[in-house]
From TrEMBL:
<dbReference type="InterPro" id="IPR000889">
    <property type="entry name" value="Glutathione_peroxidase"/>
</dbReference>
<dbReference type="Pfam" id="PF00255">
    <property type="entry name" value="GSHPx"/>
</dbReference>
<dbReference type="GO" id="GO:0004601">
    <property type="term" value="F:peroxidase activity"/>
</dbReference>
<protein>
    <recommendedName>
        <fullName>Glutathione peroxidase</fullName>
    </recommendedName>
</protein>
<keyword id="KW-0575">Peroxidase</keyword>
<keyword id="KW-0560">Oxidoreductase</keyword>
<dbReference type="InterPro" id="IPR029760">
    <property type="entry name" value="GPX_CS"/>
</dbReference>
<comment type="similarity">
    <text>Belongs to the glutathione peroxidase family.</text>
</comment>
<dbReference type="InterPro" id="IPR036249">
    <property type="entry name" value="Thioredoxin-like_sf"/>
</dbReference>
């Protein structure tokens, strides 16, 4: 079985490297967007990064434009937005697809390993997203800011759906670090 850390990812500059290059004791992989109603989660992600990086947490962002065109910029524009708007210091890599035939191999792997729990129990957010997003395949990512927590071997410990904020997963991080 392949570890997520063995899968190549592409930097914002276009270089291909294995995810292991960014790995820590724990790694939080997040599909991100700069024009999304959840974009403010960048602030919480950066706060987690600053609080837990010295304990082994690595956060890696993957911009995605598959959800109502909420990440329309170039990789360079995305980097500038992250730096200037949220003072992001964790790596934000090259823009990718997370679903469908052009999905980045990392996200195809993560979706297969952790299909998620998307459903009506997510309340109002579920209702809003379901109204604008076509039916998805089982395991598909439904929106930006879906998060995957990986252990030091690259195995998925948890998947967090978009309405789960970075602050909501702080206890999990503390438990595993």
């Amino acid at each position: 079985m392949t570890s997520a850390y063995d899968i190549d990812v592409t930097t914002a500059e276009g270089t291909s490297v294995p995810l292991r290059h960014y790995a820590g004791t724990l790694t939080l992989v997040v599909n991100v967007a700069s024009k999304c109603g959840l974009t403010a989660q960048y602030e919480g992600l950066e706060a987690l990064h600053r609080e837990f990086a010295d304990k082994g947490l690595r956060i890696v962002g993957f911009p995605c434009n598959q959800f109502l065109g909420q990440e329309p910029g170039t990789d360079e524009q995305i980097q500038e937005f992250c730096r200037l708007t949220y003072d992001v210091t964790f790596p934000v890599l090259g823009k990718i697809d997370v679903n469908g035939p052009e999905a980045a191999p990392l996200f195809a792997h993560l979706r297969a390993e952790a299909p998620g729990d998307w459903g009506p129990h997510h309340g109002e957010f579920y209702d809003k997203i379901s109204a604008v997003t076509p039916a998805t395949e089982p395991g598909d990512i439904v929106w930006n800011f879906t998060k995957f927590l990986l252990d030091d071997q690259g195995e998925v410990l948890a998947r967090y759906e978009p309405p789960t904020t970075p602050e909501d997963i702080k206890k999990d991080l503390q438990q595993h670090l």
